[in-house]
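Need a sequence for this fold. Nothing fancy.
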């Protein structure tokens, strides 16, 4: 399902699908992955991760316990109805309740739809766009 979603043009524009997830990826303890659904229908993928789990991560300056998030809506007809904002907000507050002092995300600077959704739930830009090993990003963070 994730691979099929990653093949969709609206996902492929912002999410690298060159290497599909394998068993080792899915077992990585640094990352929690989720399938998002509403009314019994799966429609999105979300992950959160420890920002201190990789050497020289672009969020390494954040305080201990900080988490990063990434997600996409796989079903195109679910875009533009507030679903992304809703599930991002739900996960954001769950991470804060679990003790994360900061939650960061890194959309592509040209991904206006994602940036708008993040802003709606309290994320703020905290630096200029930068090149990372994962591509060009706009650093954004939300604090408790």
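Here you go.
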């Amino acid at each position: 399902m994730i691979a099929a979603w990653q093949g969709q043009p609206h996902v492929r524009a912002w999410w690298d699908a060159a290497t599909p997830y394998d068993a080792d990826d899915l077992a990585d303890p640094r990352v929690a992955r989720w399938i998002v659904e509403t009314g019994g229908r799966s429609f999105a993928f979300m992950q959160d991760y420890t920002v201190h789990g990789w050497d020289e991560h672009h969020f390494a300056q954040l305080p201990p316990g900080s988490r990063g998030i990434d997600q996409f809506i796989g079903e195109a007809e679910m875009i533009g109805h507030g679903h992304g904002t809703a599930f991002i907000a739900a996960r954001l507050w769950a991470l804060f309740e679990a003790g994360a002092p900061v939650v960061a995300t890194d959309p592509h600077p040209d991904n206006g739809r994602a940036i708008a959704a993040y802003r709606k739930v309290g994320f703020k830009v905290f630096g200029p766009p930068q090149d990372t090993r994962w591509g060009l990003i706009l650093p954004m963070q939300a604090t408790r």
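For context: The helical segments are 2-6, 9-12, 23-27, 83-97, 112-120.
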